Amino acid sequence: xxxxxxxxxxxxxxxxxxxxxxxxxxxxxxxxxxxxxxxxxxxxxxxxxxxxxxxxxxxxxxxxxxxxxxxxxxxxxxxxxxxxxxxxxxxxxxxxxxxxxxxxxxxxxxxxxxxxxxxxxxxxxxxxxxxxxxxxxxxxxxxxxxxxxxxxxxxxxxxxxxxxxxxxxxxxxxxxxxxxxxxxxxxxxxxxxxxxxx
Length: 198
Hints:
It is a single chain. The chain has 198 residues and is α+β, with helices and mostly antiparallel strands. It contains 5 helices and 9 strands. The strands form 2 sheets. Strands 3-9-8-5-6-7 form a 6-stranded mixed β-sheet. Strands 2-1-4 form a 3-stranded antiparallel β-sheet, with no helix packed on it. The longest helix has 11 residues, at 5-15. The protein is globular and about 45 Å long. The termini are far apart.
């Protein structure tokens, strides 16, 4: 039996441990959108493909298919996290927070005519993009990109929130699922790629 693309994403996330390492088993995650992550080097995240530190050094462009079952023009929060810090065998710093952006908007419908389907980042990053830098000898690190629907258009992260403390020591031992629960964020799309610590 052929899986539709959204179910294929969910099965891949289970097969590669994103569920349960980043996304909880319960409640079950059902993707509502396909998420495309494209770096300035023309490399894309393709559900676990291997990229290099050079490929991913600069902030990517995000595109996503229209989200199922939404009305109006919702806003989204985008997260990139590494559950394999410092290594998958010893993830004592799980998760390492690489990027958090709120107020992300789907491209306007006119964008279809202009071929600019990139999501619109309407606010400065809460956690500025920190590129993958897996330590030497730590093997494969999964970098997981999560797209959450925000509870309302006025959503923002408080000034004193942990996500605004962005020194490297403040980024470790973060939990994206707890973050989402705290702020009423609903996970709608996921993608990931691998960078090897060599």
